[in-house]
Automatic annotation (TrEMBL), chains A, B:
<feature type="domain" description="Pyrroline-5-carboxylate reductase catalytic N-terminal">
    <location>
        <begin position="2"/>
        <end position="105"/>
    </location>
</feature>
<dbReference type="GO" id="GO:0016651">
    <property type="term" value="F:oxidoreductase activity, acting on NAD(P)H"/>
</dbReference>
<keyword id="KW-0560">Oxidoreductase</keyword>
<dbReference type="GO" id="GO:0052851">
    <property type="term" value="F:ferric-chelate reductase (NADPH) activity"/>
</dbReference>
<dbReference type="InterPro" id="IPR028939">
    <property type="entry name" value="P5C_Rdtase_cat_N"/>
</dbReference>
<dbReference type="Pfam" id="PF03807">
    <property type="entry name" value="F420_oxidored"/>
</dbReference>
<dbReference type="InterPro" id="IPR051267">
    <property type="entry name" value="STEAP_metalloreductase"/>
</dbReference>
<dbReference type="GO" id="GO:0070967">
    <property type="term" value="F:coenzyme F420 binding"/>
</dbReference>
<dbReference type="GO" id="GO:0005886">
    <property type="term" value="C:plasma membrane"/>
</dbReference>
<dbReference type="GO" id="GO:0015677">
    <property type="term" value="P:copper ion import"/>
</dbReference>
<dbReference type="GO" id="GO:0008823">
    <property type="term" value="F:cupric reductase (NADH) activity"/>
</dbReference>
<protein>
    <recommendedName>
        <fullName>Pyrroline-5-carboxylate reductase catalytic N-terminal domain-containing protein</fullName>
    </recommendedName>
</protein>
<dbReference type="InterPro" id="IPR036291">
    <property type="entry name" value="NAD(P)-bd_dom_sf"/>
</dbReference>
<dbReference type="GO" id="GO:0050661">
    <property type="term" value="F:NADP binding"/>
</dbReference>
<dbReference type="GO" id="GO:0006740">
    <property type="term" value="P:NADPH regeneration"/>
</dbReference>
<dbReference type="InterPro" id="IPR010185">
    <property type="entry name" value="NpdG"/>
</dbReference>
Length: 222, 222
């Protein structure tokens, strides 16, 4: 499988890139608005993986070119950029591709971090609205601690709840997630249930902020 | 400490009652609108605890009488009854008591279970609005699997995120929660952050519904 990480120069992009490169044989393509930044990040991630004993080639391209090369496109951009980013690559997407969104809307208020969903109800629903009709959209990876993901010495032992209305696409993303050692993917329902998944992200920040010794947290359902 | 479980004849009341009776020396008082039902439930929980080798006396009273006897009052009623229940016991509450709410608003929609918060923003905020001004309100126990809680043979090994604006009250509830073996309580912020905690309840239902072999789930932050 060929996976493009758009906005893949950021935290969650770095984490997913090094994990997929290290633990799997999928092709990992880094996308960015700036192709030089994409290329540099790809080299940097390849070095991180090489320093753990695996020689992998990652490539970097402008977002639309990265999308054109991919089967699965992960939108590693902030929630307020997802709609623009989907529009900017829409011509390169077709019904054989899968669009994956890990973003969660968050605002800071009295009492802690709060979920701040777009008017569509969730970032996943926003992406589904913005995507071409025939392109399946899957929400996943919202609750992964980016720092631990990027640190190949760190154990994960956490879950990622996955939502989507297209069962086949959801199964494929669950498979890609579980190709990463220590990551269990759980079906959390349709896109209508995405807000409950995206709400976990601010909760993790609140728990990390208010409890000594807990940081870079993930979640496990048990 | 004396703990009253209002609506303590239901699932979460049963679970908390047998755990506190079994694992701690706190006095457990079952409240119900029907004092006979409260009394019968208290006897039933005492038997469950006795069958695991510990003789404990639980008592049962009408909700207001149970409240009058308690230091900590847990509202084990459905979310649409919490405001009425608080009103019905308000005369028995004072600033030395702590009111604890484990309820989460849930509705069923396309795509799965959804969070359905009252207009106050969360059930915890609704309870805070309904409670006398000097009575501290703490949200806790939302994500506990009632069946596993009530089964003293079952291991917990899960967390409960706790929210509240009164630090002393929150600390006391965290202590009561951690008196139960296998339960870790985590400070998840103020009442303003309660909605993110209450949203985990429908997410747990969605994960249990969509994944074979997972049911009666709790959550662990790690």
């Amino acid at each position: 499988m060929r996976i493009a990480l758009l906005g893949g120069t950021g935290d969650i992009g770095a984490g997913l890139a090094v994990r997929w490169a290290y633990h799997t044989h999928h092709d990992v393509v880094i996308g960015s608005r700036d192709p030089d930044a994409a290329h540099d990040a790809a080299d940097e991630y390849a070095e991180a993986v090489a320093s753990h004993g695996r020689e992998r080639k990652l490539t970097g391209f402008e977002n639309a070119m990265a999308t054109d090369r991919a089967d699965v496109v992960v939108l590693c951009v902030p929630p307020y950029h997802v709609a623009d980013t989907v529009e900017s690559v829409a011509d390169e997407l077709d019904g054989d591709d899968i669009l994956v969104t890990p973003a969660a809307g968050i605002k800071r208020e009295d009492g802690g971090f709060r979920s701040h969903a777009p008017s569509a109800g969730s970032v996943t629903a926003l992406v589904a609205d913005a995507a071409p009709d025939d392109v399946p959209v899957v929400g996943a990876f919202h609750t992964l601690p980016a720092g631990r993901l990027a640190d190949l010495d760190a154990e994960l032992d956490i879950d990622t709840p996955v939502v989507g209305d297209d069962d086949s696409a959801k199964r494929q993303v669950i498979g890609l997630a579980e190709d990463i050692d220590g990551l269990r993917a759980l079906d959390a329902g349709g896109i209508g249930a995405a807000a409950e998944v995206e709400s976990v992200t601010p909760l993790l920040l609140n728990v990390a902020q208010n409890n000594d010794g807990l940081h870079d947290l993930g979640v496990r359902f048990q």
